[in-house]
Amino acid sequence: MKAAIATGTGITVAEVPEPVPGPGQVLAAPLAAGICGSDLHLEEALRALADAAPPIVMGHEFCAGILEHGPGTTARLPAGTRVVSVPYADGPSGPEGLGLSPVLSGAFAERMVLQESLLLPVPDGLPDDHAALTEPLAVGLHAVRAARPEAGQVALVVGCGPIGLAVIAVLKAEGHGPVIAADYAPARRLMAEGLGADIVIDPAASSPYGRWDDLGVTEHPPSPLLPAGLDRPGNVIAFECAGVPGVIQQIIEGVPRHARIVVVGACIPPDTITPVTATVKEVSLTFVYAYRQDEFARALHLLAAGQVGMPALITGHTGLDGIPRAFGDLREPGHHIKIMVRPSP
User: Fold this and answer.
1) pLDDT tens for the 345 residues of the chain, in order
2) Nearest CA-CA partner of 289 in 267, 319, 308
C-alpha cells in the first residue's frame, strides 16, 4: 500500500507492507486525516536525528472506514462503518500511539489497523472531514475541563492554531466568557473571531494582558492580605496554546495574581520560567495532555450536533502525494489552519 513516511531526511511517499490486524483489531481505510502541529514538530525532530531517525507514518486525527475484522473481534460495528478512535492500538510490546509510532502506521496511509474496543461510529450526516476533527476538539475539551472555569471568569487563549481555536470553540459552546484570543497571524485571529472570541488581539500591536480593567477583572491582594473565606480568588484563566519557549513566563508575568494557567501547547525545546514570580503571585500552573476517552466521545457529539464551528478550520485538502508540500504550506504564515489529507485514491 502507499503511505507518507517521515524519516530523518523528510517525508516521502512510497509503498509499504500491508498492515495485518492483530487480536481485537480491525483493518480500516483512512477517509480523512488532519495534519496536526505536533506532526510538524515530529518531522523536525526526526530530521534532527538524521540517520538515527526511525521511519514513522504519521496521522493521528482521522476518520476511517472498517474493511475487515481481525481475530478475536466482536464485529459489533460491521464492515463499511465509518469510525473515529482514540489513536492507540496494541503493538507487540504494548499500546502504541497511532501516528507517533514506528511500529504501527498512522492515517497518512491507504490502510491502518485500529483497536476495536476504542472505535466510535460516526453519526450519519457528519462528513468525513468534520469527523476527523474529533481528535483536536477533544484536546481543547480536555484543556477546558482541566481549567474548571466558573461563571464570570475571563479566559485568555494565547496562540490560535488548531488547538487554541478548539479551546475557544469549547469555551463558547459551553457558555464561558468573555474570551480573549491572541495570535500574530491574521488568518488565525479571523478564525478566532468567527468561533466567538469576544476580544481578538494582535500581540505585535497591543498586549493581551492590558484589558483586565475593561473586563471588570479585580486584582486581588497577595495571599497574606486576602480576606477569610476567599479560597479561589482568581478570576482569570489563561490557556497557553502556542508551544513556544518563553510564552509560559510571559503569561505568568502578564496575568493578575491568583490566575490559573493551563499549558496545552507542546513546547519541545527546553524552556525556562522564573518560579518566584509565579510563587509571589500564587499562580497555579497545570499541564494537560490529550484527553480522556469520554471527552473524545463528547467531542464527536459536539461536532455531530453542530454545536461548534470547528469545520471552518479546514482550509485545504490534499492526497498522500501532496503531504510534503502541505507540511511546508502549514509552516509558512498564510491562510492555512488545518489541511485535511484524503489518503484513498
Assistant:
1) 999 999 999 999 999 999 999 999 999 999 999 999 899 989 999 999 999 999 999 999 999 999 999 999 999 999 999 999 999 999 999 999 999 999 999 999 999 999 999 999 999 999 999 999 999 999 999 999 999 998 889 999 999 999 999 999 999 999 998 999 999 999 999 999 999 999 999 999 999 998 888 888 888 889 899 888 776 777 999 999 999 999 999 999 999 999 999 999 988 889 999 999 999 999 999 999 999 999 999 999 999 999 999 999 999 999 999 999 999 999 887 789 999 999 986
2) 267
Do 21 and 115 meet the contact criterion of CB atoms below 8 Å apart?
A: no
**Dmax (CA) of the chain:** 67
Q: Are strands 154-158 and 179-182 parallel, antiparallel or unpaired?
A: parallel
Taking the C-alpha atoms of residue 98 and residue 107, their distance in angstroms, rounded to an integer, is: 8
Helix ranges (H only) for the chain are 37-49, 128-131, 134-147, 162-173, 186-194, 247-254, 275-281, 293-304, 323-331
Any idea what DSSP says for residue 93? T
Q: Looking at 54-185, list the stretches that DSSP marks H as alpha helix, in order from N- to C-terminal side.
A: 128-131, 134-147, 162-173
Could you identify the residue written with the cell 495570535? Answer: 183
At 261, which helix (H) or strand (E)?
A: strand 260-263
Rounded CA gap, 214 and 210, in Å?
9
Is residue 173 within 8 Å of 308, Cβ to Cβ? yes
Closest by alpha carbon to 262, among 275, 276, 272, 247?
Answer: 247
Asked if 133 and 165 count as a contact pair (C-beta separation under 8 A), the reply is no
Q: Which of 82, 78, 81, 83 is nearest to 120 (CA)?
A: 83
Residue 292 corresponds to which cell in the numbers above? 480522556
SS3 content of the chain, % helix, strand, coil (to 5): 30, 25, 45
Residues in CB range of 306: below 8 A, 6 or more apart: none
**Is 259 exposed, middle or buried, given 0-12, 13-18 or 19+ CB atoms closer than 10 A?**
buried
